[in-house]
Amino acid sequence: MFTGIVEELGEITAVETLDDACRFRLRGPVVTQGAKHGDSIAVNGVCLTVVDHEGDEFTADVMAETLNRSSLGALEAGSRVNLERPMAVGERLGGHIVQGHVDGTGEILERKPSDNWEIVKISLPVDLTRYVVEKGSITVDGISLTVVDAGPDYFTVSLIPTTLDLTTLGHKQPGDPVNLEVDVIAKYVERMLGDRAQGAAQ
């Protein structure tokens, strides 16, 4: 489990294309500290498994399913990525519960800068709109954010300078894809209420 609090802005150093997958080599001096084979690291919000690591770099395999359902397939050598290690038991939950299981992708639609923050408008797949509410939580490229406005096919977030400086959202422009993970609690509530309604109808 992750929290959506990005630990560092890493970099893809190499991409190896395989038959039905690819292998990334990534640089991340912070997240590689103490890393070992089999550990999980979130890359732009996608939970990946460490295959190998050496120095401040690690490799991770990405299967076709993940490439098709996330924006990782658009990454290339030199791409910057958000990196986060799983939350350790007993630590503070700084963001919200993030699984690292991407629900869909959106697209940066618009950026409106101001002196102290920036409003970013992002497209939202129609099948995810029921999980996104004003002042609720959403994960964008692995970043835990608060929804400012929830529209029929979009949402907006307000980004402080720290988020702009330390994550990929400081560099992405209109047209760029982002990974989205909705609040898992909303999905569980929907399932439980649906099962209750179905049971009452029988």
UniProtKB/TrEMBL annotation:
It holds the Pfam family Lum_binding. Keywords: Repeat, Riboflavin biosynthesis, Transferase. It catalyses: 2 6,7-dimethyl-8-(1-D-ribityl)lumazine + H(+) = 5-amino-6-(D-ribitylamino)uracil + riboflavin. PROSITE patterns: LUMAZINE_BIND (PS51177). The keyword Transferase applies. Its EC number is 2.5.1.9. GO terms for biological process: riboflavin biosynthetic process. Lumazine-binding repeats lie at residues 1-96, 97-193. It is an enzyme of class 2 (transferase). InterPro entries: ATP_synth_asu-like_sf (IPR023366), Lumazine-bd (IPR001783), Lumazine-bd_dom (IPR026017), Riboflavin_synthase-like_b-brl (IPR017938). Residues 1-96, 97-193 form the Lumazine-binding domain. The keyword Transferase applies. Transmembrane segments: none annotated. One of its GO terms (molecular function) is riboflavin synthase activity. Pathway: Cofactor biosynthesis; riboflavin biosynthesis; riboflavin from 2-hydroxy-3-oxobutyl phosphate and 5-amino-6-(D-ribitylamino)uracil: step 2/2. Catalyzes the dismutation of two molecules of 6,7-dimethyl-8-ribityllumazine, resulting in the formation of riboflavin and 5-amino-6-(D-ribitylamino)uracil. Homotrimer. PANTHER family: RIBOFLAVIN SYNTHASE (PTHR21098:SF12), RIBOFLAVIN SYNTHASE ALPHA CHAIN (PTHR21098). This is Riboflavin synthase.
